[in-house]
Amino acid sequence: MQLCGRIYTESKDYVDEAYKSLFHEIVDRFGVAFQRALPNLPFQEIFWRAHFAIGAMVHTMRDSKKLVQLSQGLCDPSDVEATLERLVEFTAAGMRAPLAENRAAPALAASTTETSA
After folding, report:
1. CA pseudo-torsion sign 9, 14, 18, 21
2. How far apart (Å, rounded) are the C-alpha atoms in residues 51 and 108?
3. What stretches of the chain show up as alpha helix (H) in DSSP?
């Protein structure tokens, strides 16, 4: 958890290079799997959504004490199973959400152009 937090908070080049070398294969595999699971989304949108999902995960791991404070004890992130269930449910809904209309037409037109070229 600490390494994950450092990767996302350090702005040093060596951290960026380590991140790329450690996670490049994972990113490639997940990209292919997400494209299969979400064929109606442009690849660019999949990256945005995965980025937001990772942000939710990292924030939950690194700063869940604030949730307890903000909810005045209503939320209990120490219940790991329930926290993971909520995070998966939230992330899955975000990944499956329909593409906003203002991005749908240009993105689909661009992907159509790329495949026909």
Report:
1. positive
2. 21
3. 2-9, 13-37, 43-70, 80-96, 101-116
Contact 7, 15 (CB under 8 A): yes
Region of 72 on the Ramachandran plot (φ > 0 left; ψ -120 to 50 alpha; else beta): left
Residues constituting the chain:
117
User: How many angstroms separate the CA atoms of 67 and 30, rounded?
Assistant: 29
Let me know: does 54 contact 26? Beta carbons within 8 Å: no
Higher pLDDT, 111 or 82: 82
* Gap between the Cα atoms of 111 and 115, Å rounded: 6
- Domain range summary for the chain, segments of one domain joined by +: 2-116
- Is the pTM above the cut of 0.70? yes
Calpha distance 86→77 (Å, rounded): 10
pLDDT tens by residue, 47-99: 999 999 988 988 888 888 899 999 999 999 999 999 999 999 999 999 999 99
